[in-house]
């Protein structure tokens, strides 16, 4: 499939970011998932957990209602004042909490982006006020500057600094399943028929978790087996 002559601004900006970061490939669902071959589309949707998990980096456009907006930071963003006050030799700086920006963004309201945020190992979020990065070990805010070598220490022992995405016990048994499902059901979809497809990647992850907490599903309904029952079934 060839790209159109004129790309939506967000896609064009994502290509620019990809090149500036030194990567050779960019995966965009609208272009990389077949929209005409329904069988191929179904098979590709079944693999979305692998797409997100094995991506080197996921670029999140946390501004704009559609793909014509562009990426904040690549294009001019709204001006925001980061307040600070100096007390003697100590300067206090107000942080711009990414949780608020991301939770209130159009991206966070869409059903299809739920597993994108949850399953990705590294996320680069271009928000309305700053850039935010989170992987499995650290999370960094553009509004807080400190040596990179100290980031893991802060992530493990220090203040939260606005950690957005969960990294622990995401797929740990039935309680975790209902938490993920509850979060997902707050999202909106253009087509009700996509409800199961847009959550399928998360279902796949529950199926591949530790045997003691592994969950299978039937048409989206969870099926839990005790470890002994699983062994007998084998």
From TrEMBL:
Superkingdom: Eukaryota
User: Which Pfam family, just one, is annotated for this protein?
Assistant: HET
Q: Which InterPro entries match?
A: HET (IPR010730)
- Residues forming the Heterokaryon incompatibility domain are 7-116
PANTHER family, A to Z: DOMAIN PROTEIN, PUTATIVE-RELATED (PTHR33112), HETEROKARYON INCOMPATIBILITY DOMAIN-CONTAINING PROTEIN (PTHR33112:SF1)
Q: What is this protein called?
A: Heterokaryon incompatibility domain-containing protein
User: Per the UniProt entry, what species is this protein from, by scientific name?
Assistant: Clonostachys chloroleuca
Taxonomic lineage of the native organism: Eukaryota, Fungi, Dikarya, Ascomycota, Pezizomycotina
């Amino acid at each position: 499939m060839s790209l159109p002559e004129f790309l939506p601004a967000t896609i064009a900006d994502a290509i620019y970011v990809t090149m500036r970061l030194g990567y050779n490939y960019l995966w965009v669902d609208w272009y990389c998932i077949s929209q005409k071959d329904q069988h191929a589309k179904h098979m590709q949707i079944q693999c979305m957990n692998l797409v997100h998990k094995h991506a080197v980096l996921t670029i999140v456009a946390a501004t704009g209602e559609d793909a014509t907006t562009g990426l904040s930071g690549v294009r001019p963003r709204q001006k925001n004042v980061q307040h600070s006050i100096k007390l003697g030799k100590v300067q206090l700086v107000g942080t711009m909490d990414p949780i608020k920006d991301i939770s209130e963004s159009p991206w966070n309201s869409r059903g299809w982006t739920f597993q994108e945020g949850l399953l990705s190992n590294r996320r680069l979020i271009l928000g309305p006020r700053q850039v935010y990065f989170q992987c499995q070990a650290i999370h960094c805010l553009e509004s807080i500057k400190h040596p990179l070598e100290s980031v893991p220490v802060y992530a493990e022992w220090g203040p939260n600094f606005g950690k957005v995405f969960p990294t622990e016990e995401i797929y740990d048994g039935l309680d975790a399943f209902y938490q993920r499902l509850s979060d997902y059901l707050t999202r909106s979809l253009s087509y009700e028929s996509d409800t199961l497809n847009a959550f399928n990647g998360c279902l796949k992850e529950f199926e591949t978790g530790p045997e003691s907490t592994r969950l299978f599903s039937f048409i989206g309904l969870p099926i839990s087996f005790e470890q002994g029952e699983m062994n007998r079934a084998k």
